[in-house]
Amino acid sequence: MICAIDANELFSLGLLLDELFGEKNRVGLVTVEHNPKGRNLSKFFSENSEFMLIYTKDIRLAKFNDVAIDEDKKTSFNLEDAKGRYRLEPFMRVRTSWSRKNKPQNYYPIYVSKDLKTITLEKREGYYEVYPKTADGREWGWKNIPKTFEKLNKDGYFVAKKEGNQIKIFHKYREKQVFKNIWINKKYHSEFHGTNLLKKILGENLFEYPKSLYLLEDILKITSKKNSIILDFFAGSGTTGHAVLELNKEDGGNRKFILVTNNENNICTDVCYPRIEKVIKGYKNLRGEWVEGLGGNLKYFKTDFVDAEPTDLNKKKLVDKSTEMLCLKEDCFDLVKEAKHFRIFKNPQGKHLGIIYDDEGIEPFKKEVKKLKKKFVVYVFSLDESAREEEFEDVIEMVELKPIPAVILNVYRRIFK
Asked: Which of 276, 300, 324 is the last residue of a domain?
């Protein structure tokens, strides 16, 4: 969890988060310079920074991704294989403390085939015998002892190269960096990469102090997986959603985002939603140039109350709202069939969802399952606790039954009892 805040409420928020997550699960506090000009009318300090408070549920299980976010670091990883970006580092360590005398266990021969493709500790006829020695004859040590070398020596971790008359051993050093807790890179400045970017997308400045797109991208690079679901419950101008789409395009990920906001000053209808829609579909910038869309899907939901009075109107409303929530849960929104007692949905990946609203819908729904010959995730509304597995025995290979979420089911029972 990453909370952005300015100095005014930093201490109050920190105490609240310590109480919620526990001090031991505090990952760090990062200072971000987002406005290098500061505020000229300040009586005391001219604030030009904001803060990120970062927490986790269990710090024993949490870890950052091995990535680089600084451009100079990223460009140093100039090679790539199936596992990602890397650079080659010498396996010989040339330091006084790593001399043969000081590290005798790290001085041993490595055998390399003539084509430089096979690297082993096993002595083989016709192979080069390589010691950790410089061209002038000085003896040093390898970075690992033989036992560790054997564990590492797989999937092309070691690389041999011939330089002049000497064979040199390298190892792959994967993309990573140590992250500092003060971020002062120009790409985090909100004026250029927040305000001006938003103006290019929407054609005018409709929101004060949007965050830099690159700030959110780098946060996600460090903390998210390629299939993560990212929740921003104070979405503002929608920078988080935009960053998710950009990052998916960059690394081929399938991250999803949920943005939550009120509509104060029409921030949702005039800023957040239009921004994400344009970024997905494409838009013309202020110069009239077409900017290609990043692709993706976008659904818009508004919270609403369902009255508990058992009227027909409330029953219909609950069914409709519950259906939307289940579609959201299963990522299936395209309506395939709507009947009196059930509905069928699918998504572009071919996943099918069935929602059955009462027992009368089970048999006609099963007929559709047999007709479509697709595998379904199925939810069955019921007033009692009885299971429904026996009702689906004849189509059990095509149906995965799931329980209605309790928060929906409790209201359903109250209205329909």
From this structure: 300
Q: Do 263 and 338 fall within a single domain?
A: no
* Whether the Cβ atoms of residue 365 and residue 345 lie closer than 8 Å to each other: no
Query: To which residue do tokens 């105490």 refer?
Result: 15
The pLDDT tens digits for 36-57 are 988 777 788 888 999 999 999 9
CB 183 within 8 A of CB 33: yes
Inter-helix orientation angle 213-223/239-251, to 10°? 60
- Whether residue 290 is contained in a domain is answered as yes
Residues 271 and 236 in one domain: yes
Task: Read off the tokens for 400.
Answer: 């995965």
Of 238, 348, 351, the residue nearest 300 (C-alpha)? 238
Residues 44 and 85 both lie in one domain: no
Dihedral (CA of 248, 251, 255, 257) sign = negative
One domain, residues 190 and 287: yes
Indicate left, alpha or beta for 203 from its phi (over 0: left) and psi (-120 to 50: alpha): left
What confidence tens digit (pLDDT) does each residue in 191-220 have? 999 999 999 999 988 888 899 999 999 999
pTM here is 0.78
Burial (CB count within 10 angstroms: exposed 0-12, middle 13-18, buried 19+), residue 398: middle
User: Residue 161 is part of which domain span?
Assistant: 78-174
Using CA atoms, how far apart are residues 380 and 399, in angstroms rounded to an integer? Answer: 12
